[in-house]
Amino acid sequence: MNTDTTQPIVHLMCGLPTSGKTTFARRIATERQAICFTLDEWMLNLYDYTIYDPEYGQYAVRCQEQIWSVALQLLACGVEVILDWSLWSAQRRKQWKDRIDAAGYPHRLYCFPHSLAVLQERLRQRNHEQPSGTHVISEAELLRFAPLFEPPMPHEGLTIVEITT
Length: 165
Fold this sequence. Notes:
By secondary structure, this protein is an alpha/beta fold.
C-alpha cells in the first residue's frame, strides 16, 4: 500500500507490443506496493482468446470493466493500481482519463517510444522465449499495429512519463 498521505495513483501503460509495458508495470508494482492488472494475462487465463480471435475485443472490454471495478475498490483502500493494456489512441486514453478523473484519482501515463527496429528485435526474442501471459505476435502484425499508434500529447491532459529503457 502507498504509505504517503496523498491519493493513490492510477498508472497507465502506453506502447506497442514488446515496448516494455508489462516489465515496467511489474517494477512499479513492486516499488510502490501497487496492484498490477495486465489485460493479456487476464484474457489468456479467463478466456484463452488471442488477439486474433473475433471474440477478443468484446471479452477484452468486459475484462477491463471487471478489472476497473476491482481497481476502484483498491483505490478506495489507498492502494495504487496499474492498468497494463495498450492505450494506443488519444480517444482511448481520453476515455480512461475521464473515468479516472470522475473517480477522483490522479493518474500517470507511461509511454514507451521505441523505434520499430527495437520492437522487432524484442518481438523475435519474446516469440522465441514465449513467456507466459503474453500473446505470440508476428512481425507482420507488429508492422500492421505500428501506424495505429498515436503518441500521447500534452494537450490530452495526462501526466505523461516517457520510458526509454
